[in-house]
User: Fold Inosine/xanthosine triphosphatase from Marinomonas rhizomae.
Amino acid sequence: MTTKLGSTVIRISVGSTNPVKINSARQAFLQIFPNHTIHCEEMHAPSGVADQPMTEADTRLGAQNRVRHCYEHNADRDMDFFVAMEGGVDKFEEGAATFAYVAIMSKEGELMIGRSANLPLPEKVYQRLQGDEELGAVMDDLFHTDNIRQKGGAIGLFTNHVATRESVYTQALVLALAPSLHPEHYQ
Assistant:
């Protein structure tokens, strides 16, 4: 962390150019570190998985791959944290659902993983996803929206915007940061 004008600046590399993911990272770190200035830099980071991950394992792997890409491409070694999010879908005992995995890496290389809650998906949506469509495109079609993935997402649409893609990512990131707040309990 660097000091700037009397406040501490936390520099974060976010493995996405999606404004929702960048804002989620900023909001999570502002909640955890309210007396700091949070500086986020976006970076295209490949997930190494399908554009629409269809299993929990692939979703987790996508987040991990993105965060590792950010960490490995920090040539100046000037970032404090690296953050990545990957939204995915899977079929559970309760039915199909969408969720996200988040990955945070400290500048020392400590990896922290978190997961969001599930949003149940209608069977007709899940069937379209199995046909190689992406959730954002399916939602845009069903709700007559445009580029919902960079706005409230399926979560916003199905909850009447009580929750949003950003709020769910933010919560998952806050929870994943617990080990960095209390390392003495997470050894």
The beta strands are 2-4, 7-14, 36-42, 81-92, 95-106, 111-115, 119-120. Residues 56-72 form the longest helix (17 residues). The chain has seven helices and seven strands. The mean pLDDT is 93.
